[in-house]
Amino acid sequence: MPTLYVTEQGATLRRTDRRLVVEKDGQRLAELPIIKVEQIFLFGNIRLTTPVIALVLEKGIDLVFLSRRGRYRGRLVGPETGNGLLRLSQYRAVEDEWFRRATAKAIVRAKLTNQWTFLQPWGAQTRTAVAELRELVVDAGRRRSVQALMGVEGRGSAVYFQALRPLFAPAFTFEGRRRRPPPDPVNAMLSYGYTLLTNLVLATIQMVGLDPYLGFLHGLHYNRPALALDLVEPFRTPIVDHVVVHLVRDGGIGPEHFEPGEQERSILLNEEGRRRFIAAYEARLATRVAYPGATGEEQVTYRRIIERQVRELARSVQDRRRTYRPYVVREA
């Protein structure tokens, strides 16, 4: 597993020879060869030794700090790539109205397509939503501004999340997407998963050398990683939503894996719930699916598809005649 998650409160992450070791009260809780680690998530009160900090900076390992319950706090990042020409190309691409609109349109259409593809196997329960989402894919193709595309995307999300409601057991009441704060277990899992996924995409963007704060669909706002939000859109449904629906339907998570949040009427995963969610999320990232390669279709993990997608966008901004093609799930 290329990502190390440390959730045990009061634990210490230290370096021992060529391994990262998680300890608490003199007892080893986990250890992993340094060579296998690409990203580290620390949840809550976790101690770091100086050698680990030096290692993370030297090796370019992305280290993300979150609250115990999954709220993003910040990250420790080593020297960024020196590819100034790539970033210059990105800045010019963002200023190119035609390229920006074409890229935003491709992202919205891919997201909508992945949503209806996910809903389609559920049959009569989701048939109306599938039809409407397919119409919105066509509608997005006709839109001539990024603002109009955002409107189509918003309409699609409303249709999609309403269609998810009957897929959950009665113990998991879900009235639609609510984020701040999440009022029910399903929203709690969605928010938690989207946080993990967005940080994975953000780290990949930085590794490739693009600027994560300059996007094409999401506008420029201070301290908002617009490009990460752009590129995460097509992956929300096949990765996070898939994990949430199947955890609930297969009994991997139950009502006992949640607790009240600090905000009024908020619900969050408890410690055991977070462990179960992370295990399912990592398993999904490691799932191999069909993806077009240089010599034909290949079986590639979702984690590697994310990296390929970021590199695909990097090639597109360097040669704006090359259309960016976001990830689209193959229809079952």
Strand order of the largest sheet: 1-5-7-8
Query: What's the number of domains?
Result: 2
Structural shape: globular
Q: What's the Cα radius of gyration?
A: 20 Å
Describe the structure.
This protein is α/β, with parallel strands linked by helices. It has 2 domains: 3-76, Ribosomal Protein L15, Chain: K, domain 2; 84-318, Four Helix Bundle (Hemerythrin (Met), subunit A) (Up-down Bundle), CATH 1.20.120. The protein has helices spanning 50-59, 84-95, 97-119, 127-142, 146-164, 185-208, 226-249, 271-285, 302-318; strands at residues 3-6, 12-16, 19-24, 27-33, 39-43, 47-48, 62-66, 72-76, 258-260, 267-269, 288-293, 296-301. The strands form 4 sheets. A 4-stranded mixed beta sheet has the order 1-5-7-8. Strands 4-3-2-6 form a 4-stranded mixed beta sheet. The protein has a two-stranded antiparallel ribbon with strand order 9-10. The longest helix has 24 residues, at 185-208. The model has no long low-confidence stretch (mean pLDDT 89).
In short:
By secondary structure, this protein is α/β, with parallel strands linked by helices.
Give short descriptive properties of this protein:
single chain; 332 residues; alpha/beta; Ribosomal Protein L15, Chain: K, domain 2; Four Helix Bundle (Hemerythrin (Met), subunit A); 2 domains; 4-stranded mixed beta sheet; 9 helices; 48% helix
Topology:
Blueprint: E1 3-6, E2 12-16, E3 19-24, E4 27-33, E5 39-43, E6 47-48, H1 50-59, E7 62-66, E8 72-76, H2 84-95, H3 97-119, H4 127-142, H5 146-164, H6 185-208, H7 226-249, E9 258-260, E10 267-269, H8 271-285, E11 288-293, E12 296-301, H9 302-318
Parallel strand pairs: 1-5, 2-6, 5-7
Antiparallel strand pairs: 2-3, 3-4, 7-8, 9-10, 11-12
Helix pairs in contact: 3-4, 3-5, 3-7, 4-5, 6-7, 6-9, 7-8
